[in-house]
Each structure stands twice: as structure tokens, then as C-alpha cells.
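Recap from last week: sequence in, structure out.
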Amino acid sequence: QVQLVESGGGLVQAGGSLRLSCAASGRTFSMYSMGWFRRAPGKEREFVAAITWNGGNTYYSDSVKGRFTISRDNAKNMVYLQMNSLKPEDTAVYYCATHRAFGPSTAWALSRDVEYDYWGQGTQVTVSS
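Predicted C-alpha cells:
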């Protein structure tokens, strides 16, 4: 059974930083691309960042590009999201997810939540102004 467990969320002031972690189990982690999504109050879930199975390519939404960095450690079955220069509009529940197909994926596919089949429970990030 695939399990994804996020951690690292919390309350931070605008301009601050947080590092989210996602621990994966139950699947050959290194074969699958991973993504981070978020859902703000009253809004639909949106794509944040994705990383291909081997870490060779990363993709970001325009709203976080240049501020957030996604990375992975396949030896530890971990994926991370380093968030810098946080803004109040980054406030949301953040979810990690594993792509449904192993191997190469396109940027377009990795930005779509329907392309992911397992999700974590989420971690709350709150940015105060």
C-alpha cells in the first residue's frame, strides 16, 4: 500500500521560509515522478511543483517560480519543497502526490492533479502579513 506523509508546515511571517518534506513508502519511489499541490481556503487544488523520477527535470507554477525549489532523495524515499520569500497568498494545505505512471512524463502531465494516483494527507502552511 502506497503511503505519503507530509511534514514541515507551520506558521511563518511573510518573507520567511519553510521546508516541506514528504516520506513515501509502498512503491518503487525512484521510478515515479512526484508533485506538490496546494489548496487554499475556498479555492480549487492547484499545481505547485513537480520533479521527474530521476530528478532530472523540475517544473513550477508561475506563482512560485524563483521562490520554491522541489528536490528528491531517492535513497531515502523523500521529496522536499523548499519555500522561500513566502507570501500570504501561499497560505494553503500542501499535498504531495505520486504520478500514476512510472518513467518519463511531460511538464503538462505533471501539472495535472488527475495524473496522480496517491496523495498525502496534507500539511498546513500559513503565512502572516
